[in-house]
Amino acid sequence: MGFCFSPTIRSVSKFTSCTILLVFLLSCTSFTATEAYDALDPNGNITIKWDIMSWTPDGYVAVVTMFNFQQYRHIQAPGWSLGWTWAKKEVIWSMMGGQTTEQGDCSRFKGNVPHCCKKDPTVVDLLPGTPYNQQIANCCKGGVINSWVQDPANAASSFQISVGAAGTTNKTVKLPKNFTLKAPGPGYTCGPAKIVKPTKFVTADQRRVTQALMTWNVTCTYSQFLSQKTPTCCVSLSSFYNDTIVSCPTCACGCQNNATQPGSCVEADSPYLASVVSGSGKNSYTPLVQCTKHMCPIRVHWHVKLNYKDYWRVKVTITNFNYRMNYTQWNLVAQHPNFDNLTQLFSFNYKSLTPYAAINDTAMLWGVKFYNDLLMEAGPLGNVQSELLFQKDKSTFTFEKGWAFPRRIYFNGDNCVMPSPEDYPWLPNAGSHPDISLLTLFMTILSAMAFLYAYA
Q: Would you say residue 138 has pLDDT above 80?
């Protein structure tokens, strides 16, 4: 872009066009791929499979199953809610393993009253402890679905639905439209239902295969940009070779505004805190965070701890600043080029993720069952930690220019706010620490150009 800074340019229009070009380029760098899709789990989705198991005099009985094919993103409490719009005037006669949130207007029916008559029903999961005669397989977990990698046995949720006023053959049935999935808030976008090959089922003795009469799938994908207006976690950094502790960016997840919105955060010594800890308000899923400069419910701290001849060691600490939530089955995803030589991990589970096929630079970490798989609410016990031992690759390893710190970190599937690279702890003898950022350089050049044109 050297032509934009040529001192021979005199045309104001050229100066304006160059300025617009620079602003455009800078704005492009401010958006990440995670706002469109998950860059570390590009194929992750929730697939809703709708299997018609039998025909009835006025419709059908179907089993609806949601499969969480995301590697590390759960659907957490208070759980999922699934909605759609009927194509005709269908009603739901009965359900097992789930229920609609509203019955709707069923006044046109005499005698037997349907479970739901709404044109656009919303279904939720039943709670644990539901009587057995109202359950089916994979139901009744309060809407919680764990991720495919961390807990595959609990990565699906099902309910059975009896539909009336519908077609009675696979040529007359009309597919529902406008599927929505909340988990429990926004974030998922669902595509249209598509007819696929009927699902096949194998009996327990493996000797007989049956199949659904008709099957359609709906695929829902997640966007953190749609899910929440502000981030939910941030990253801080430190190292043994520098006394500087790089804190989470200020206002990373919002700014303190107790003056205009009392109760947006709580000081650690506040009298109000006692009522929260004793149980008041714990049923609310709205975060109540400790007052900090970053205002994030979760902080992940990456500390470069030790340097050996052939190895180097990192300590990772996850701290919960949310007074209203224990994080069950939490997980952490970190991206760093040395994960291809991770030698040992202490007190965390580990699985290598390869979102870019041959490149092994992404790791999923989560707690050991019954030991540290529960991240307690804010307070003295509200943290978990582990250490990672890496073997050095002599061709790439260095402590210079922030190489030892992660490229990105996710907590429970949400991309955490990283500090600015220019703030990373640098080696004491590193003379290459930048005193001016690229953005500052651009702004300085633009100011100089404006000055030159003003007196040209």
A: yes
